[in-house]
Each structure stands twice: as structure tokens, then as C-alpha cells.
Specification:
Shape of chain A: rod-shaped
Distance between the termini of chain B: 14 Å
Number of strands of chain A: 13
Radius of gyration of chain B: 13 Å
Shape of chain B: globular
Radius of gyration of chain A: 58 Å
Strand content of chain A: 15-25%
Strand order of the largest sheet of chain A: 7-9-11-13-12-10
Number of helices of chain A: 12
Structural class of chain B: alpha/beta
Order of helices and strands of chain B: EHEHEHEHEH
Structural class of chain A: alpha+beta
Oligomer: heterodimer
Helix content of chain A: 40-55%
């Protein structure tokens, strides 16, 4: 046994039992087996003991009958009490015999012999019963252990009945019985030990080991190694479990790969949009520069042209003028080249459904909206009429507008994208600014935020390049000028309605692709907002 | 043609105005100048012009803002807009609002003269 005293042996064992399937299984099986064989053995041993007892009784009966016959014969031949006593003394040498007593028909002791340390028998109920009804047997607790009494009546001269009592120690039988029990227990233990060994080996080999393999596999998958597979050749439940596990891991891997692919796609799309935006911004800068430089450059080249008409071609100083003209032309060329490079290509307008464009915008801004804790609600019904649009450019418009709305919104608020004929928020006191003009029926898209809104003063400048209500370094101030440019190229219209602390509502009115199809049931032909 | 065609030049840049004035006067046109929309409106009140050569970018109301009003007041006057190169949206807006010609700065004087001549032709056509 273990000699190391465990600090809390019970809880430690409990921990082992709780963790180790094999141990638990083996202990459970052992308990069941031990109970069954224990009950079985108990019944068998009880029967064995009974059998031994019966045999002892039988032996004692035969002995007592024989003895009674002998005594009866001797008495009839007239032997004296002393001679009887001698006979009895000789008989006492028989192993296990404790006492022999001969009672006369009157019940008095004629002769007796008692082993050392035992109480001498005396006339009692059992003996009296034997006188009347024949031989009797009964157990008795003697001084040196259990005894078996046997009283045998026999013929006494004169036709009367005497009796003879034999007391036999059961110690011998008990010893035999104990021997049998010990043997039984030993053989049981041997079988049990063998069984434990076999069971442990079998469970370890066929249950614990594969389960450990499964655990290792699950752990690997749990920590991200989705390529992990479990190789079993077995077809049983554990083999099926491994198959299912492998299938699950494969599905996980496929789902994971799909997610990665989608994320990469989104990233690529986002980068493209950012690139387009950046290019648009540089284009705005170039346009601004062209505005600033255009007039002075025109004055220089124009004056040089005027001079060129005055100075004859063959004049020696004519070359100075030509250089001025050429260099002015070069500056103009550089600005044109820059503008051509950065200007978004001309809008190619075609009938487009608006919902996919807005859906893409919402998807592109999903991460940013989650980061800011602002939700984007697309409240647009399906079946909206298609609009005349360049989807890429229109996407940039809505990207800019929804981005502005997100950036202006406090966490927990909602940015709504909806369609409605009139403004969705109370117009009272709101300042409004409109860019572009739409002719004929149009589809109005409203972008509504719960941000801090803008003053009329801010709103008046909102479409100017480099004007930004965002903090220093947050906005380039070129987003809305680009929006305006695209809106105008679409022959569409944008209206901004705002009031400090009341949020901002932007309405983009896009011309319908099929104006003739715009029945009165469709969106109301939206004229200039000043008509209202 | 009994009288010289008259041209009103509207630009906030004095040097640009002076250049256009010099070149057009040299071509024999009857020219006048205005430095912004207000001056242009005042000048138009005094007399009519055949052509207005107007910059888009000016302090106060821009050339595009002035366009519809001018078209209403003097529908016979042809209006040529000037703006920086690449300003396509304002070009489209200007055409929508009734500008007859459009010049992207920097433009060559020959270009400008051709535009003026074309505008005069259109005016003659519309009168006919």
C-alpha cells in the first residue's frame, strides 16, 4: 500500500475518478462483479456450511446410535457403572468429542465423561423429549465454542428406556468451513485481479487512447489548427466519432477559408474605394490649382500672344517671346495632364437599381459603423424603379454621405437610409442647401443622422473645397465637392437640411432611368425643392 | 454692319480684364468691363450688349448664379463663360443655363476670338 500520506486523499481520489474514464469504468465493473459473485458465493458457502453441519450431525447420530447399541448390550450383560465409565473414558479419545453422558430411565446420570473445561451435561428438556419421542439434536454454545448435542434413547433392561447424550465440538467443521471460505475468497481475488488487468488494458487500448487522441485533435482545432484530422481505421462508435470530428473540422476549415476570402474581398473593395476617393481628392486639389493658376497663366500667355502679333517673326528678340509662350503652354499642359489623370472618368450613365449600390455601401461601412457603435438602417422597399447612374461613382457619393453621417452620429444612434417624397424630419427652422438640378421624375434617397447638425452658416459652405466640420486632420474637405461633381454629372440633385442638435438630412434625387414608366403611383416627380 | 458689335467683359481679375479688353478692342469691338456681378448688372441697365464674356469664379454671385437672370433680362445677348480647365460640371451647368460658348482657362486669344465670332454668328442666326 502507499506509504506517502496524501494531504487530502479523498478529494485526490475523487479527482482521479472524475478525470479518468478507465478507472471509473473498471471500478464500476468490479463493483458489479463483486456484488454478483459475492452474493453467489455467500449462497454457496451458506449451503456448504449447512451441508457440513448436516454431515456432522449425521456422523454424530451414527456414532450415538452405535454407542447406544453398545451401551445397551453391555448393560444387558450386566456390566457395572464403573465398567461403563471406563468405556466412556476410552471413547472420549475420539476427536471433537466433548462429553458423553448416560442417563438412567429415571433420569439420573449413570456414567459420564466430560472433556477438561467443559460443563457436565445435566437432565434437561431436550433429554426428556428424547425419552418420550426418540433421538434429538440441538446446537449448544459450549465453553470452547459451538457444540452439537445429540440425545439417543436406548433400551434398558426391564423394557425401560434410557438415554445417551453425546456432545461434539463443531470446531472441526468450523475450521473446514473457514478453509473453504478462504479458498473461495482467494480464488475470487485472483480472478478479479486478472479481470482488472484485462479490463484496464482493453479500455485503455480501445477507449482511453482514442479518446485522448480525440481530445488532442479537438484541442488543436480549438486553438485554430483547422487542418487537424484524426486518423482511425476502426469502424465502431469511436471511429464514427472521429469521422464526424474530421467532417466538422473540414467544414470549419471551409467556413473559415470562406470568411477569410470574404474579408479579403471586402478589404480589396475598400482599398479600391479608398483609392478612387484619394484620386478624386487629388483631382479636386488639381482642379482647385487649375482655378488658381488658370487666370494668371492666361494673362501671361495672352499678353505674349498680343506681343507676338506686334513683334515680327524675324526680330532677334522674338525668341524670348516664343519661350514665354512655350513655357506657359507647358504649365497649362501639366495641369491638364494632372487633371486627366486624377479626374474620375466620365460618368457612363445606364439604368441601375439603387438597392445593390446602397447595400454595398452599407457592407463597406459595416466595420466602421460597428466600431463607432452606430447602426445603419436600410429602410428601402424592394422594387424601386431603376435610376440613371454610374454605379461606381454613385457608390462613392453614398459612401461619402453615409460616412459623414456615421462620423457625425453619437454612439448608439442610427443612420437611416430611406425613400420618401418630402423631408422625413420636421423642416421647421432647418437651413437647406441644394446642388445640382433634376429634371423630370426622380427617386429620392434620404440619409438621416442624429448627429450634432450644422448651422446655416456651416451649411452654406458645406460644398466648398477644403471646408470641413470634422476636427482638424479628420476630413479632407474634398468629399462633398466630389459628391457635388458626381451628382451634377448624373444630372441629379442633392439637398442638405440641417439644424444644430437636430441632426442632418441629406436627400439625393436621382433621375429615373425610365421616366415614362413613372406612373402617379411611383415616386412623385421631384422638381426643385424651392417649389415647395 | 452699321455699328461695332458690343462686348461686356466680366472678370474679377483686373489683369485678365485688361488683356481681354486690349485684344478685343484691337479686333475693333465696342468693349466695356465689369469687375463683378453687381457692376455687370449696372452696366446692362445702362445699355445692351451683343456679347457678355463672363468668368465663372467671382466674389459675390458667381457667373453661373448670374446666368439665368441675365438670360431673362437680355435674352438676345450671347453669353460666353470662362472657367478653369477641367471644370466639367460647371460647363454642363452653364450650357444648361443658356451659355452659348465656354472657354477653359488658360485659353489662347485666337480661341477666344473664334468663340466671340461664333457667338455673333449665332446671334445673327437667332435674329434672322
Amino acid at each position: 500500500m502507499t506509504t506517502t500520506p496524501a494531504p487530502r486523499p479523498r478529494s485526490r481520489w475523487r479527482a482521479i475518478l472524475a478525470r479518468n474514464l478507465t478507472t471509473r469504468l473498471v471500478i464500476l465493473l468490479m463493483l458489479v462483479l463483486m456484488t454478483i459473485t459475492g452474493v453467489n458465493d455467500y449462497i454457496r458457502l451458506a449451503r456448504e456450511r449447512e451441508r457440513l453441519l448436516r454431515q456432522t450431525q449425521e456422523d454424530e447420530r451414527i456414532f450415538a446410535e452405535t454407542l447406544a447399541l453398545a451401551v445397551s448390550r453391555n448393560v444387558r450383560r450386566g456390566q457395572t457403572t464403573t465398567e461403563l465409565q471406563e468405556l466412556l473414558d476410552d471413547i472420549l479419545a475420539r476427536p471433537g468429542l466433548v462429553a458423553v453422558t448416560i442417563y438412567s430411565p429415571e433420569g439420573s446420570v449413570v456414567a459420564e465423561t466430560v472433556a477438561v473445561g467443559e460443563a457436565p451435561p445435566a437432565l434437561d428438556d431436550l433429554v426428556r423429549t428424547a425419552f418420550r419421542r426418540g433421538s434429538q439434536a440441538a446446537p449448544l454454545e459450549g465453553k470452547s465454542g459451538p457444540l452439537l448435542r445429540f440425545v439417543q434413547p436406548f433400551r434398558w433392561p426391564g423394557g425401560r428406556t434410557a438415554a445417551l447424550e453425546v456432545r461434539q465440538a463443531l470446531g472441526d467443521m468450523e475450521r473446514q468451513f473457514r478453509e473453504a471460505v478462504r479458498e473461495r475468497i482467494l480464488s475470487r481475488l485472483e480472478v478479479l485481479a486478472l479481470l482488472v488487468l484485462c479490463l484496464t488494458a482493453v479500455t485503455r487500448w480501445s477507449i482511453a487512447r482514442p479518446i485522448r487522441k480525440l481530445i488532442a485533435g479537438a484541442r488543436a482545432v480549438g486553438t485554430g489548427d483547422l487542418a487537424q484530422r484524426i486518423e482511425f481505421t476502426r469502424q465502431d462508435e469511436i471511429g464514427q466519432l472521429a469521422d464526424e470530428f474530421n467532417r466538422m473540422a473540414a467544414n470549419l476549415q471551409a467556413a473559415h477559408d470562406e470568411l477569410v476570402r470574404q474579408a479579403q474581398e471586402r478589404l480589396k473593395l475598400e482599398q479600391e474605394v479608398q483609392q478612387a476617393q484619394k484620386l478624386g481628392e487629388v483631382g479636386m486639389l488639381a482642379a482647385k490649382m487649375a482655378h488658381e493658376i488658370g487666370t494668371p497663366l492666361n494673362v501671361i500667355s495672352g499678353r505674349a500672344e498680343v506681343l507676338g502679333q506686334v513683334i515680327p517673326r524675324d526680330h532677334p528678340d522674338r525668341r524670348h517671346l516664343d519661350v514665354i509662350l512655350r513655357q506657359a503652354e507647358r504649365i497649362g499642359g501639366s495641369i491638364r495632364a494632372l487633371l486627366n489623370y486624377t479626374r474620375p472618368r466620365r460618368a457612363s450613365l445606364r439604368p441601375e437599381p439603387i438597392l445593390p449600390i446602397l447595400g454595398r455601401v452599407a457592407a463597406l461601412l459595416m466595420e466602421r459603423s460597428q466600431r463607432r457603435g452606430v447602426r445603419i438602417h436600410l429602410e428601402l422597399p424592394v422594387g424601386l424603379p431603376p435610376v440613371l447612374a454610374d454605379p461606381d461613382q454613385l457608390q462613392q457619393v453614398f459612401l461619402n454621405l453615409v460616412l459623414n453621417a456615421l462620423d457625425a452620429s453619437p454612439p448608439g444612434s442610427v443612420v437611416r437610409l430611406a425613400t420618401a417624397d418630402g423631408p422625413l424630419r420636421p423642416t421647421e427652422g432647418r437651413a437647406s442647401v441644394v446642388r445640382g438640378k433634376v429634371e423630370g421624375p426622380a427617386l429620392p434617397i434620404h440619409i438621416i443622422d442624429a448627429g450634432k447638425g450644422m448651422t446655416a452658416e456651416q451649411l452654406a459652405h458645406i460644398f466648398e473645397p477644403f471646408f470641413s466640420t470634422k476636427g482638424q486632420g479628420l476630413g479632407t474637405g474634398l468629399g462633398l465637392p466630389i459628391v457635388e461633381e458626381i451628382i451634377r454629372a448624373h444630372r441629379a440633385e442633392i439637398e442638405m437640411l440641417s439644424l444644430p442638435d437636430q441632426g442632418t438630412e441629406v436627400i439625393v434625387r436621382l433621375p429615373l432611368a425610365h421616366p415614362e414608366a413613372a406612373a402617379p403611383a411611383g415616386p412623385r416627380p421631384t422638381g426643385s425643392p424651392h417649389d415647395r | 454692319m452699321a455699328r461695332q458689335p458690343s462686348i461686356l467683359i466680366v472678370d474679377d481679375d483686373p489683369e485678365m480684364r485688361a488683356l481681354l479688353l486690349d485684344v478685343l478692342r484691337n479686333e475693333g469691338y465696342d468693349t466695356a468691363e465689369a469687375k463683378d456681378g453687381t457692376e455687370a448688372v449696372l452696366a446692362l441697365r445702362r445699355r445692351g450688349y451683343d456679347i457678355i464674356l463672363m468668368d465663372k469664379n467671382m466674389p459675390g454671385p458667381s457667373g453661373l448664379d448670374l446666368l439665368p437672370g441675365l438670360r431673362r433680362v437680355c435674352p438676345a445677348t450671347q453669353i460666353i463663360m470662362m472657367t478653369a480647365f477641367g471644370d466639367v460640371p460647371s460647363y454642363m451647368e452653364a450650357v444648361e443655363k443658356g451659355a452659348v460658348e465656354y472657354l477653359f482657362k488658360p485659353f489662347r486669344m485666337e480661341e477666344m476670338k473664334a468663340a466671340v465670332a461664333k457667338a455673333l454668328e449665332k446671334k445673327a442666326e437667332s435674329r434672322a
